[in-house]
Amino acid sequence: MTAEVTAEIRTAHLLDLAAEGKRLDGRGPDEYRRVVVEPGFVTTADGSALVRIGNTTVLAGVKLEPGKPFPDTPNAGVLTTNAELIPLSSPVFEPGPPQPGAIEVSRVVDRAIRAAEAIDLTRLCVTPGEKTWVCYVDLHVLDHSGNLIDAAMLAGVSALAHAVVPAKRFGIAESDYPLDLQHVPTECTFIRLGDALVVDPTFDEEQAAQGRLTVATDETGRVVAMQKGLVGAFSPDDVREVVRRALVHGDRLRIAARGGKT
């Protein structure tokens, strides 16, 4: 049996289950897999976190070092987010330059952090126009079993929440101090399977999906960013329903971001 035929059979089965309010792994349409966050996973980083959503595993590391501010923002720090989808995490990833999937993950996570104003970049400025802190957020996908965006976002924000600015090491201050995280954004991803909207899709469900919608929220109840992916449409009612569900899931994920299991 060819891979194409197998994929068609799998898709048909997933759509049949979704029509009955069921999923292949036994979850309901609005149920996340087990979420585990381990902050401080890499002791040599300024901040880090390992996140597992089901078998999907993402390691985030934060590094802060002095640098020059951008000319158009002389009084602000610099935030750079990068995602690496290494081949050992999934057979669909290949070595070489960043793939579209890696670019999408890094941009979606970066946008949510900025839009939520999770970090006050002006507080990272050391000397206006001359010296500022550059904050690197590196996301390493270790196991791709679906829903990379939510896992990467959770790993990134948890690493930032536990990050320490190494001011003493660089002779900028007499002691290090915690990075001030003003808001805690999280992202919730939904896909369409027929008429059903299911949260936290697995890899197989993503392959069968007719559209993907990611909603980023913060602890104040704001919707700070959205990302539409894959081929397929969502009605205005669909979007309202997804936002409502994302706000509920976001509160739970923010508890996990502090280091725990849900």
Label this structure with key terms:
262 residues, alpha+beta, Ribosomal Protein S5, domain 2, 6-stranded mixed β-sheet, 4-stranded antiparallel β-sheet, 29% helix, elongated
Task: Look at the structure and name the CATH superfamily.
Answer: GHMP Kinase, N-terminal domain
Class computed from helices, strands and strand pairing: alpha+beta
Query: What is the overall number of helices?
Result: 5
Helix content: 25-40%
**How far from one another are the termini?**
39 Å
Task: Provide the low-confidence segments as ranges.
Answer: none
**Global outline:** elongated
Which strand-content bin applies to the residues?
Answer: 25-35%
Major β-sheet annotation: 6 strands, mixed
Number of strands: 12
Give the second-level CATH assignment, the architecture.
2-Layer Sandwich
**In the CATH scheme, what's the topology name?**
Ribosomal Protein S5, domain 2
Mean pLDDT: 93
Per CATH, the class reads Alpha Beta
C-alpha-based Rg, rounded: 19 Å
Number of domains: 1
Q: Give the H and E element order.
A: HEEEEHEEHEEEEHEEH
